[in-house]
Amino acid sequence: MKIRTFLLLLGIGILTIQCQKNYNDYAEFEAEPPYILNMNEEQRPYFEAYDKALKLWGANYEELYVPTSFGMAHVIVSGPQKGEPTVLLHGMNASATSWYPNAKDLSKDHRVFAIDLLIEPGKSDMSREVEDIDAIVAWYFEIFEKLQLEKFNIIGASRGGWLSVAIGLHDQTKIEKMVLLSPAQTLKWIQPSSGLLANIIYALSPEKKRLESVLESMSANVKKIDQKYINQYFLGSQLDSINRFVVDMKPFSNDELNTLKMPVLVLIGDDDLINNEKSLEVAKENIPNIVAEIIPNAGHFLSIDQAEMVNSKILDFLDSDPKQK
After folding, report:
1. Which value, to the nearest 10 degrees, does the dihedral of the CA atoms of residues 140, 146, 150, 155 take?
2. DSSP secondary-structure letter at 93?
3. pTM value?
4. How is residue 114 annotated by DSSP?
C-alpha cells in the first residue's frame, strides 16, 4: 500500500511538473535584455511611460523578449493558453500599448500576442539594419516561428493593417481570419488634408503644443484617450524613430486583394482621416470573403474612440463560423 501510494504521489508530482512546464512555454523569452536593464537616461522616461501605459491593459499579461536575426522583439501576451492565437499589429508612431482599450475583451477567450514593431517606439530593439518591407515581414515570421504560432488570427491598425495584408500575401496558410482597422495606404491613397498636414509637421518637429491638434485629427473624442498613453505617445515621438518605408506602402492592387482567401473584416471611422466609404467599396469589390463596416462617431483611432463597439464586432467576426457567412 505504501509503495502504491508513493507511486501515485510520484505520478502526481511528475504531472504537476509537466503542467507547470507547459503553463510557461515561453519562459526562455521572459528575461529582460541588457538594453532594458541598463537603459540610458535618454531612454528611461519613455520606458517608464510605457510601463505606466501597460498598466491600462485590463488583463493579466506577460512580456516576452523574443530574439530574432534583426534584434529583440518585445511581445505582450495575454489570455488563456488554449485560446485561439490572435496577433495584434499597432499603427505608426505607436506601440503595442495602443491596444489597451481592446486587450481585456480580446484576451477573454483568445490568446493575444501584441508585438512592438521593430522600427517604431516600443520595447523591441533593432541590432541589424532593416533594409525594406520584405525584411519587416521576414522579421514577423521569425517571431511567429519562435512562438510556435502555426495558425492565428491577425488584427492590424493603420500601418499594422497594411503589414497584416503584406503578411497574408506572403503566406496565407498561417492566417485564420484578418481584421483591418482603418488600414493606412492599403485600399486607396491617403488624400491630402489639414489633418494630414498637422501630422506631417508634428513628425518633423514633435512639440507638445502641436500634439493636441494631431490627436484631434486622429480621434473623434480625444478625452477618451488615457493620459498615460498620451504621455507615452509623446515621449516616443521624441526618440529617434526610424519611420522609413512609408513611401513603400502603396495601396495593394485589385489582383493582390483578390488573392486573399481568408475571411477579412474592415472597419473604418465615419470621421476618419485616412479612409472613407471609397475604401470600403474597394474592399467589398476586391476581397472575396469580406465584411466591411463604418463605425459611427469614430476617427482614425476607432479602437479607442468606440472601443466597446469595435471589440464587439471583432469578437463576433472572429468567433463566427465562416461557413455560415
Report:
1. -40
2. T
3. 0.88
4. E
